[in-house]
Amino acid sequence: MISPISILNHLSQLTSQVSDTAATATGIATQAAVAKTPMDFASVLKESLEKVNATQVHATQLSNAFERGDPSVDLGQTVIAGQKASLAFSATTQVRNDLTDAYKQIMNMSI
């Protein structure tokens, strides 16, 4: 059986990876901004979800602009943005699944 501490460490790493992926994809966060934010789990999770959402919104905007025939948006740029959004969402889904599994394991532990 996996210990709860190792599960929490794994979840922390996954949350960090999602945050890094979303920040890289959107270019929103910088190291200075990350260092100034409080490091409680809820705020980190919320910030990560907002970055994933921003990545998806950006990909949708590029896709819509490409479909309208905007000359400033090319196919490669649109596909890359879509893949980044897909990757960020997949990572978020994995974190959600791991959090759910960890919660179930913690609830099944005897006191």
TrEMBL record:
GO BP annotations listed: bacterial-type flagellum-dependent cell motility
A GO CC annotation given for this chain: bacterial-type flagellum basal body
Protein name, entry field: Flagellar hook-basal body complex protein FliE
Subcellular location: Bacterial flagellum basal body
Keywords: Bacterial flagellum, Cell projection, Cilium, Flagellum
InterPro entries linked to this entry: FliE
GO molecular function, one term: cytoskeletal motor activity
Family under the similarity heading: Belongs to the FliE family.
